[in-house]
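Entries read sequence, tokenised fold; example below:

***
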Amino acid sequence: MIELHPGLVLLAGASVFPILRGRMVNLYAVGLSLLSLLIVASLSDGTYLRIWFLDQRIELLHVDKLSKAFAYVFCINVLAVELFAFSMRDRYCHGITVAYVGSSLGAVFAGDLISFYVFWELMAVSSAFLVLDGRTERARGAAFRYIMVHIFGGLCLLAGILTRITATGSAALESLVDPAVWNWLILIGILTNAAAPPLSAWLSDAYPESSVMGGVVLSAYTTKTAVYALARGFPGWEILVVVGCIMTIYGIIYALLENDMRRILAYSIINQVGFMVTGIGLGTPMSIDGSVAHAFCHIIYKSLLWMSAGAVLFRTGKRKCTELGGLYRYMPWTLFLCCVGAVSISSFPGTSGFTSKSLILEAALEENRFWVWLVLEIASAGVFLHAGIKFPYFVFFARESGLKPKDANKSMIMGMSVLAFLCIFLGLYPAPLYNLLPYEVIYEPYRYPHVVSQLQLLLFSALAFFVFLPLLKRTETISIDTDWFYRKGARAFHKALGRALSWGHQMSRSFVDEGLIPFIAHISRDGLAWFAPIALYPIWMILGEDREEAAEKVARIQRAVASGAVPIGLGAAAATVLLFILFVVI
């Protein structure tokens, strides 16, 4: 039986979008997304589509429980996104979205490092075009910075892959737990896509500048493909525990400082990916299952939150909290669906975030990693503060902004409803999710002490928010992130390089105009008058002429050259001497 590759199907299907018009764009996009989901469901475990390239076995389709878990949620999410954007007739955005998801699926199903790298780079390029889809000057600048950071990450990944193949002779995508130099390079490349600090600012810089649809799509795939790669190659690396814990706190701090609703959600991605990275670093079956489950659920509820923010942006044209507020009267459906996503990301009992994040916390306790558990608990409280309360409160409540927009259109509500249903369904009945995970799950999230402690944590966070609300009031602020260094550094480097090149240009021009060209002109005009007598003088002496006669001939030739009357045979004689010298030397 020939197994179809869902990623290749989407990549091939993306090429059709330029010839489509009108509603056919949306029907075709929904059909492709549904087809990819059906293909993933039909795949059986094993390795397919093998080819040989440069003496390496390329495995384009490696199917196991880990790859299928990510593939399922990738396809479910793109289907919901296409439903959400069904009223949008943008062939460009729909085509790039399908190509982006296809390349992400290609990376997830890759069984070797070479094909993984190819799909990884296709993912980076297509996602950069989604940032450009914002079609503003800010979007163009963000896309440029985005692709430059990903070029750096891609080069680290490529260097690690090539070094590993040279050293070991193997390009297999398998456990990379050996702390060799090439594995560290591969890890840096992957962590760049995971938005690990200090190379994380590309996410909050680029994602909010994309279009309404583009922002939703971008929130799901690049960072989660990186989580998949970490789970595949680096389970149990202790450094990932440290990196993940830093990410959870880092994302909270910046999300609380932000005024832009889409940048709040962007920083929240970094925070949530930190939980997944920490679970992979712990390296136990339960923590790996927790990371995969949390990635699955995170894609769903984070896309739901980005959809609600996109609906607000679509209807109002505003994205800053200082420009919004009081929308609960005019956008009730958007508010309700946004709140489902907000309580899910906050791990409220009865939602998908509770049934997934609990696995990671429980794994930390089982490994007696109290400090890890404590950091993750603090981060959980922070998530409720910024994504669970701050985002919906300032956008839909707070003071009146004077805006009176319509609610989201039917297709937007349909897309959000699909994801909201999954948030509740997987929260109340997590068995289907647990059955997809790489290892057998023997865990019951709804234990009385766990439910009570989680509710206490959330209620305490809510109390803290409203107590300190005056300190969290909306202000026109700009948060300086680590991108400041390469923004300012690149500008300073550009100026310094420009000055250095300008100085070099002036010096070279001065040397050429005032030194080299006059010298060449002098040689061209008077050189023969000086060279020929010097070359002929020894010959005249050999022929028996005395010094006075030879000196007179030299003086006569120089006077003739000075007057412009050069003897005809003088050039031939000089050329003969030169040829003789060359013959002797060579």
